[in-house]
Specification:
heterodimer; A: about 800 residues; alpha+beta; six-stranded mixed beta sheet; 36 strands; about 25% strand; globular; B: about 140 residues; mainly beta; OB fold (Dihydrolipoamide Acetyltransferase, E2P); five-stranded mixed beta sheet; 10 strands
Chain lengths: ~800, ~140
């Protein structure tokens, strides 16, 4: 009996959850027969089960609802808002009762009759209800959802069983790794290897499938939103069009639990403070119904949830006022703040733009708590505020709680992991940008003019620091809350996806560890907690205003400054980025034009040999896409597999890691991309271009002129000339140089300097017989004139 | 009512542990130290895919860490959801004790008082009955202090 009851409770609760959205959708479109049927079925099932289980109150409630719904089904009655309200009321009561039964508490004695009466009332007063309907009808929440399709067949399993399964698979993976080690020690046996390969593949597949069992559709996260939007809209007299999208995205079950609260809070805020009343919206020329859009999508190993409304946005001026009134900000400091800083004030505890505290939000739980909750699970929250136009809040949370990208660092002869998200930058201590000074025992690392507290991981953990050859690595570490600091480690070894498990309370109590992980080598490794390390080292966590300003500037340089970059695919398959301004153009080049000479790869272009920057010379296709690059006097060709698109990338890569032609890694739209280092690229070119002859430069006198810069200069460069914009200031002109200009005074200056002049004119006709100028679009004459001066 | 007890030597003292608390006894091989911790946490060790926190019980009792070369056996136990390995000198036996638990007698060394609950007799010797969870709580308390 108990088992049956348990089953009834969990089934009812689950259906209730799923149904809340359906009822609201049904209200918006009462003719929707499918939804009506679904709701009817729910009450019918409840009625049936509780008759059997002897739960008379349930039976009465569901029976009443069923009666009304069947009348509506028969067309004898309309689904007006009052009826829907009453049905929702009944569903809520059933929910409460279920909970009471589940906890074994006494059923709360409330007046069920009242609810049942509310259900039947409108039927008697159908005519009068028209007026009430118009009033209540002002609040509808239309829900655009994909038609609910047939539910897949499922069974219910206890979570502990799935965890057990997961552990089992982990054991299996470790056993496989050990077996693989043992096999490698023995002589190779191809037959055995094949069998082992197959086993490996099976185990890997199994691990993937098992980890999927922990995943859940975001739909569950969304289930409660339509109802909430409808109820809030009603209470506040606002009309809201709700759009939910991306419900089929999957995320970790635990993650769903963690995101529910922040999401609910943001949606509440949006309706309460963001979207205006219909009157005010009309006055502002916006449609009466406010739009609220909640969207989930997967981006790399993150889930992005965006909540966008077209309401009033955040009034940053009011925020600043409040902050000053609360004594958190001096008017002086406020004047220096950027718009983004002002917006960030919303995350300060106890600040709200709401004129008054309402029952809906503003219950002392602010955006500070939302941010703290999101960051606790390794997520990020971003605001895009358009005052008067709306606000878009983006939550980025990791796919699961348990797998994070991490860096493996070495210190004191031991390995540690640190979350990749906590590391801003990695430098070697022999880097010129870095300067380490010591005062009164404190170490200060100055990186590009910004001073950071500097600690050595070994010192914080009380380990010996073995002597080491080669430079130490200095990481700039930023925790979710504290100030960034520099941390020295012996080396940064690796970048891996780590499966994190909780460490025992004893170890956590030390405060510097956030968990542990078991890598393939079978030696447990500890995950460092950035904030904890700063605490343990007792680093000053207060920043004076000036330092803050400097840091903000540095941050702005490091983070906000974006440059256009070309995303492309290398012939070897990796995807990389290159600053767009270095690329002169992209063209398809005949593969036959590529060749090798003297160990270097070259390509024949316009009769000249141009070095190939990545040394590729043989291709499996006829045409090769190539980037034509140029520094101020040399050019190079960079064949690629495909040019993908142009994206914005941060000026300084997210992770600086110089090696070879790569200067670091940037994350663009959730994808880790290596950024090419143009310096290394050109430095690696052979000293002299093979066919280069000593030849004069083309000096363009009218360097300010748009035509000269944009049309003439590229033309000359394309023709293989060295082009210099403007006359050299130090007058170091070579007699072989050619000066191109359009004004006659510049021509005279150039003649005095002793080099040949080609004068250009804008009109096709010469002004007179003495006019030695050339029409500027007469390419042949122009080239001849320039060539004539050389040789 | 006959209970099963695991009899072992710990820091030179005969101890008994209720078998229900014990999951397994393993020989320790590889311990990764946890820097920044007191002597009572010897490190982490992997047992198949589980990671054990290895507790140096002798260090809790007497405050002296067991030298690495003397680390031998550990009693594996699951205490409030986490796996621990408690280091012991040696394990003698697992057996039923017909007499059951006897009250403590004599003046107990101050170091042992927080952990000893009773005495069990086996083959004519008294064994100090201790609780594994007690050690973990003991060192959590020591850390907090």
């Amino acid at each position: 009996m108990d088992e049956l009851l348990q089953e009834f409770i969990s089934e009812t609760q689950e259906t209730l959850e799923a149904l809340a959205g359906e009822v609201v959708a049904w209200e918006a479109d009462p003719s929707d027969r499918d939804r009506l049927d679904a709701i009817f079925r729910f009450f019918h099932t409840v009625k049936g089960s509780c008759g059997f289980l002897n739960l008379p109150r349930f039976e009465r409630l569901s029976h009443a609802a069923e009666d009304v719904l069947s009348e509506i089904r028969a067309g004898n009655r309309q689904a007006d808002p009052a009826t829907v309200n009453a049905v929702l009321g009944l569903m809520d009561r059933i929910g409460e009762l279920t909970e009471a039964v589940a906890m074994g508490a006494a059923l709360p004695h409330e007046n069920d009759d009242y609810l049942i009466a509310a259900l039947s009332a409108p039927a008697d007063a159908m005519v009068q209800s028209e007026g009430a309907m118009a009033e209540a009808g002002a609040v509808t929440a239309a829900v655009a959802r994909q038609a609910s399709h047939a539910a897949p067949r499922t069974i219910r399993l206890p979570l502990s069983l799935i965890d057990q399964l997961m552990n089992g698979v982990s054991d299996m993976v470790l056993a496989r790794n050990e077996l693989s080690r043992k096999l490698r020690e023995r002589s190779a046996d191809p037959e055995l290897d094949t069998v082992f390969e197959r086993l490996s593949a099976c185990v890997a597949d199994m691990r993937d499938v098992i980890s999927k069992t922990r995943m859940q559709r975001v739909d569950r996260l969304f289930a409660a939103i339509p109802r909430m939007v409808r109820d809030l809209g009603r209470d506040l007299g606002k009309r809201i069009d709700l759009t939910l999208e991306g419900g089929d995205v999957e995320m970790d079950r635990e993650m769903v639990e963690m995101v529910v609260d922040p999401l609910t809070h943001i949606v509440r805020n949006s309706i309460d403070h963001g979207i205006e009343t219909p009157d005010r919206r009309r006055a502002k020329g916006k449609p009466e119904a406010g739009r609220l859009r909640v969207e989930a999508r997967q981006s790399g190993n993150q889930i992005v949830i965006a909540i966008a409304d077209d309401g009033a946005g955040i009034d940053t001026a009011r925020l600043v006022e409040k902050a000053i009134a609360a004594g958190r900000l001096t008017p002086d400091a406020a004047a220096r703040m950027s718009e983004q800083d002002r917006l960030d004030l919303i995350f300060q505890a106890g600040l709200s733009t709401a004129q008054q505290v309402t029952a809906i939000s503003g219950r002392g739980v602010g955006m500070d708590v939302v941010r703290a909750n999101v960051e606790r699970i390794g997520g990020l929250i971003a605001l895009d505020n358009q005052p008067g136009q709306g606000l878009c809040i983006t939550l980025r949370v990791p796919l699961t709680l348990t797998i994070i990208p991490g860096l493996i660092v070495r210190a004191g002869g031991q390995h540690f992991a640190i979350p990749r998200s906590a590391v801003v930058e990695i430098l070697h201590d022999n880097n010129d940008m870095l300067q380490i000074s010591e005062v009164g025992g404190a170490q200060i690392a100055t990186i590009r003019g910004v001073r950071h507290s500097m600690i050595a991981l070994e010192d914080v953990l009380g380990m010996d620091r073995p002597a080491q050859v080669g430079p130490r690595a200095i990481m700039v570490v930023r925790s979710a809350t504290g100030v960034p600091f520099a941390m020295g480690v012996a080396a940064v070894d690796n970048h891996e996806e780590l499966v994190i498990r909780p460490a025992s309370p004893l170890v956590m109590a030390s405060g510097v560890y956030a968990g542990m992980t078991l890598p393939d080598n079978g030696r447990p490794m500890l995950l460092l907690d950035a904030a904890g390390l700063a605490n343990a080292a007792r680093l000053p966590n207060i920043i004076d205003d000036r330092a803050q300003q400097q840091e903000d500037q540095a941050d702005a340089q490091a983070r906000v400054e974006m440059v256009a970059a070309l995303r492309f695919e290398e012939l070897t398959g990796e995807r990389r980025l290159l600053k767009l301004s270095l690329i002169e153009r992209v063209e398809d080049i005949d593969a036959r034009l590529f060749g090798r000479s003297g160990g270097r790869a070259f390509v024949r272009l316009d009769g000249r040999l141009v070095p190939v920057a990545n040394g590729q010379a043989g291709f499996d296709r006829d045409k090769v896409s190539a980037l034509r690059l140029r520094d101020d006097h040399r050019e190079a060709c960079y064949p690629v597999a495909a040019v993908l698109d142009i994206v914005e990338m941060p000026l300084v890569p997210d992770m600086v890691a110089m090696h070879g032609v790569v200067s670091g890694v940037s994350v663009i739209e959730g994808e880790h991309l290596e950024v090419l280092n143009p310096f290394a690229l050109f430095a690696g070119l052979p000293e002299e271009t093979m066919a280069e002859q000593p030849r004069g430069r083309c000096l363009l006198a009218d360097s300010e002129d748009g035509w000269t810069r944009e049309i003439l200069a590229p033309l000359l460069r394309q023709a293989g000339h060295d082009v210099l914009l403007g006359l050299p200031a130090d007058a170091a002109v070579d007699p072989r140089d050619v000066v191109l200009c359009s004004g006659s005074d510049a021509a005279q200056v150039a003649e005095i300097m002793g080099c040949r002049v080609v004068q250009l004119r804008a009109s096709p006709r010469a002004t007179g017989p003495q006019d030695g100028s050339i029409y500027r679009y007469d390419q042949d004459a122009l080239m001849a004139a320039i060539a004539g001066g050389q040789g | 009512m006959e209970k099963l007890y695991l009899l072992a030597m710990l820091a030179g003292t005969r101890i008994a542990v209720e078998a229900g608390e014990v999951e397994a006894v393993v020989r320790l091989t590889d311990i990764s130290p946890v820097p920044g911790m007191g002597a009572h946490v010897a490190g982490l060790s992997a047992l198949r895919s589980r990671v054990l926190t290895i507790i140096d019980v002798a260090a809790i009792v007497h405050g002296r860490a067991t030298p690495a070369e003397q680390r031998g056996l550990a009693i594996i136990a699951d205490i409030s959801g986490h796996s621990y390995g408690l280091m012991v000198d040696s394990v003698t036996d697992i057996c039923h004790v017909p007499e059951g638990e006897l009250p403590l007698r004599g003046q107990l060394d101050a170091a042992w008082t927080p952990f000893a609950r009773a005495i069990v007799e086996h083959e004519g010797y008294p064994w100090l009955l201790v609780s594994l969870a007690g050690f973990i709580e003991g060192c959590a308390a020591a850390q907090a202090a």
